[in-house]
Every structure is written in structure tokens, then in C-alpha cells.
Amino acid sequence: MSDVAIAVEELWKVYSKSKSGKVVIDVDDEELMRSIEASSEDVVAVRDLSFEVKKGEVFIVMGLSGSGKSTLIRCLIRLVEPSYGKITINGYDVTAMDKKELTEFRRYQTAMVFQHYGLLPHKTVLDNVAFGLKLRGVPKKERREKAMHALEIVGLEKWASYYPSSLSGGMRQRVGIARALVADSPILLMDEPFSGLDPLIRREMQDELIRLQEEMHKTIFFVTHDLDEAMRLGDRMAVMKDGSIVQIGKPAEVFANPANDYVARFVQDRREEIRKADEQIAALNAANDKEVNSDVS
Ligand SMILES: Nc1ncnc2c1ncn2[C@@H]1O[C@H](COP(=O)(O)OP(=O)(O)OP(=O)(O)O)[C@@H](O)[C@H]1O
């Protein structure tokens, strides 16, 4: 059996402001491709991407705002329709599926956590988390038990009977994460899932994901603009700029050997954060030492 979970071949996405909203792409037609790149009506959001994600891998996509990360993750399950290219997930040709096949595929093979992925307002937190299992025909008792367990993982078990409107943005985000965890799908797609959370909870959720992944061995496709998050979570990462992948590799390799100035800037920012944190710790230690010494004398 193949160890490839996601295979992306020559993927393009061009958004068009033209009346039809459609762009026909032919990568072999150089003149057409030049005119698309030059057109003010067309935005090339994803440009000729080919890569593979292995089964059980946490694959990070990182890049500045507008580099095409959200478009790419949405193209994988055709929430955004690709303009050109082929996507295969766990052996299924996603690009060739009709609507019904696609719905089934999404339901059983993938779970999504998007930053603004809406919860169902008229369902309780517990029912929101259990909803995917209901669609799959899982019996009520079992789905409620599983949903409760997922809520415990994200620390919201006490909120099970509340409605989403009673929860803060960060808590709703955690409900979304619980819903994805409970789905038990082999592929987890996460688009900036922790970006709405305050730093402490964000770190806790990252730790929780690392711990869960040790048990689950899912394939996780994870979008972030944060190198620290990428380094903590990622087995491999791709750095995107203007729709292209400019570097792909293990996070530590990217950190040690940025391929160009764009990547180097992320690394520089991260080094600066580490330096500042070290300074703060040193200052705290010095203050503590001073206090201890003055107590002794
Ligand atoms: N529906 C759309 N119609 C037209 N252009 C779009 C659409 N969605 C995205 N774009 C454009 O495509 C490019 C890539 O956007 P995308 O949202 O994929 O980037 P991103 O890296 O996810 O950014 P962010 O981190 O801000 O979410 C941008 O130039 C954006 O303006």
C-alpha cells in the first residue's frame, strides 16, 4: 500500500473578476499563461504546485497573508474549485469526483478546522460536536460519549449543554477542534486553527494536538503564519509566497538554511522572539538572585 496520503500535481487556482468568474488554464499555452499572469482581472492564488504528504505526517503550510495558503487547503477538498491540476487523497482522485462522491468523501475521509468555521447556532455544544457522527449514522449513545470525550480534551466538558452564542470566540474555536477530533477521519485539515486563542491556551492546544497525534497517527495538513507553531508541530513544512512553494523540508532544516530572503525574514523574526524571551528570563533570574541575596544579607 502506498504511504502517500495527499498527492498534489501541477495545481493552479486563478480567481477571476471577469463576468463569468471562470478562467480556462492550459499550462502548455505559454501565451495564455502570460496573459493570465499580466491580467488585472485575474489573481493567481496557487501557482503550479506539486508535492506529496505522507500518511501520518503533520505537514505545515506557512506564508505571509495572501500567499495562497487558505486557497490551497480549500482546493484539496474542492471547497475552492481548482483551475488546473490533480489532487489524490488516500488513493481517491478528488478532482474527478462528482458532487455526491465529493460529499461522501469529505464526510468519511476528512475533518476540517477552519478559523471561521461556523457552528450550528441552534444546536448545543455537545450536539455540534456529535453532528458529524450523526451524519454517519453512529448510534446516539456512542456519539454522545465520543463527543463528551472530545470536549474533555479541549477543556469544555462543562459547556456541553450550552449554545454556541454563550461561548467566547476562543471557546467556539475549541468546539470546532473537538468536532474535528471526534470525526475520526484519517485526514485532518486545519487552517489557522489556533490563531483566535490567547497565547497560553494556544500553546496548550498545540501540546494537546502533539499528544493526540502520538495516539492517532492522522495525516494533518496545517496552515499557519507562525514559524514557532510550524516548528513545534510540523514533521515537514512548505513555505508559500505569491502562490508558489519557495521551500519545503523539515522545520529545523528550514530554520537552519532558509532558501531565500523571504524565508530568512520568518527565521529572523523567530530568532528575535527567542532572543527577547531569553533576555526576559535572564532579567527575571537576576531580579530573583538580587532578592535572595538581599534576604540573606
Ligand atoms: N474569493 C476570492 N476572489 C478573488 N481573489 C481571492 C479570493 N480569495 C482569495 N483571493 C486572493 O488570492 C490570493 C491568496 O489568498 P489566500 O486567502 O489563499 O491567502 P492566505 O495565504 O491564506 O492569506 P491569509 O493568511 O490572509 O488567510 C490573495 O491575493 C487573495 O486576495
From TrEMBL:
What is the scientific name of the source organism?
Thermovirga lienii (strain ATCC BAA-1197 / DSM 17291 / Cas60314)
* The family this protein is said to belong to: Belongs to the ABC transporter superfamily.
Work out whether the entry's keyword set contains Transcription: no
Q: What is this protein called?
A: ABC transporter related protein
Q: Which UniProt keywords apply?
A: ATP-binding, Nucleotide-binding, Transport
Q: Name one GO cellular component term.
A: membrane
InterPro entries per UniProt: AAA+_ATPase, ABC_osmolyte_uptake_ATP-bind, ABC_transporter-like_ATP-bd, ABC_transporter-like_CS, Gly-betaine_transp_ATP-bd, P-loop_NTPase
**Per the database record, which ranges form the ABC transporter domain?**
27-267
Example GO BP = glycine betaine transport
Is Transport a UniProt keyword of this protein? yes
SUPFAM superfamilies per the record?
P-loop containing nucleoside triphosphate hydrolases
User: Which SMART domains does this chain map to?
Assistant: AAA (SM00382)
Molecular function terms, GO-annotated? ATP binding; ATP hydrolysis activity
